[in-house]
Design a protein that fits this description.
The chain is α/β, with parallel strands linked by helices. Helices cover 48% and strands 14% of the residues. The protein contains eight helices and seven strands. The chain has helices at residues 2-24, 39-58, 60-68, 104-118, 165-173, 212-229, 237-243, 275-332, and strands at 73-77, 94-101, 124-128, 152-156, 200-206, 247-254, 259-265. β4, α5 (165-173) and β5 (200-206) form a beta-alpha-beta unit. α5 (165-173) runs antiparallel to α8 (275-332). The longest helix is centred in the C-terminal third of the chain and has 58 residues, at 275-332. The radius of gyration is 23 Å and the shape is elongated. The N and C termini lie far apart (74 Å).
Length: 333
């Protein structure tokens, strides 16, 4: 009991400290969902050291392991970051592994980590790539046959930092391996002529809480936290999953409801003979979503422009004040 109380005290203390640091280091307020992902370029080399103890203390490391060990077949990990899941893959269950991240700096850390852990593994490829763009297919198999999609797609602690998270999930959904049957299958369903192993998307994310009082705190501090860490911690992960058009088959939450573990699959209307129509509908929905993302980008560019103007005006004011002080000293002398 004492050990359990100690762990919970550590979790609550860390959470309170994070809120305090965010509030006391608050900068100018950015528009909600502004794209701060460029922050990761600057923090890549020290990122693991910053979050290692926190993830271990809060049990996030165990949650990562539990999710990643479900990976099988052709696997895609989107927004891989520094490769914090690298140690947990069971390579005996994997045909190929594709790791994507738009930050070249983060990807280089992940590459070095993978090489140190697994050596020169031909099963794995690391690509500088935004998962908002069309994703490269799995590598061809040993018979040089093209592969239709990925059996497992994983994204951990990524929806908070991506502009257009629902678009991100819809894009990934279009790259899941097709299920060639309308009959529901489970993880235990053996492959045969009438069924295929189920393709899944696994998410581990943080976002809104069960509790309104905590959500108010997250909302008030979200901009400052995102500005410093590149992460919007007040996003509604459930709503994002719903907007993705995927079917939620397993959802678990921890840490006052702010940590979300989600298992998704293609909806029934995306299986078998209906797949092509679903893909076309998904493509059309993504066009609308991309327009919204573009609007957010332009809003962000306007925010950056105004910030730069304010910075220049402040600099000009400081220079004028310095000149006035120097003139006053000359007169006094």
């Amino acid at each position: 009991m004492r050990d359990t109380n100690t762990v919970w005290f550590g979790i609550v203390s860390w959470y309170g400290y994070s809120l305090y640091k965010t509030i006391t280091t608050a900068s100018n307020v950015a528009p909600q969902d502004f794209d701060f992902s460029h922050r990761f370029d600057a923090t890549a080399t020290g990122f693991d050291q910053e979050v290692n103890s926190t993830e271990w203390l809060t049990g996030v490391t165990k949650m990562r392991r539990r999710i990643v060990q479900k990976a099988h077949g052709n696997v895609l990990e989107a927004a891989v970051g520094t490769g914090r899941n690298s140690d947990f893959y069971d390579l005996g269950r994997i045909k190929s592994l594709t790791l994507l991240d738009q930050s070249q700096e983060m990807l280089e850390v992940a590459r070095a980590k993978w090489k140190k852990t697994h050596g020169e593994d031909k099963q794995c490829r690391l690509l500088p790539w935004s998962a908002l763009d069309p994703v490269p297919p799995p590598p061809a198999d040993s018979n040089d046959q093209g592969v239709e999609g990925y059996d497992t797609i994983i994204a951990t602690l990524s929806l908070c930092s991506i502009i257009g998270p629902s678009l991100f999930l819809r894009n990934l959904a279009g790259h899941l391996a097709p299920q060639h049957t309308n009959r529901p299958v489970t993880s235990d369903t053996p492959p045969d002529s009438n069924s295929a192993p189920p393709a899944r998307i696994y998410l581990l994310e943080h976002g809104r809480s069960y509790y309104p009082w905590l959500n108010k705190i997250l909302d008030r501090t979200a901009s400052a936290h995102a500005s410093k860490h590149g992460c919007w911690w007040n996003r509604d992960i459930g709503k994002i999953a719903e907007d993705s058009g995927l079917e939620v088959i397993n959802l678990q939450r921890r840490h006052f409801g702010t940590t979300w573990s989600v298992e998704l699959r293609l909806p029934e209307r995306a299986r078998g003979e209906y797949r092509q129509q679903w893909l076309e509908d998904n493509r059309r929905t993504m066009i609308t979503m991309r327009a919204e993302v573009e609007r957010q980008r332009k809003e962000g560019e306007e925010y950056v422009r105004k910030q730069e103007e304010a910075r220049q005006e402040k600099g000009a004011l400081e220079r004028w004040r310095t000149e006035q002080r120097e003139q006053m000293r000359e007169k006094d002398s």
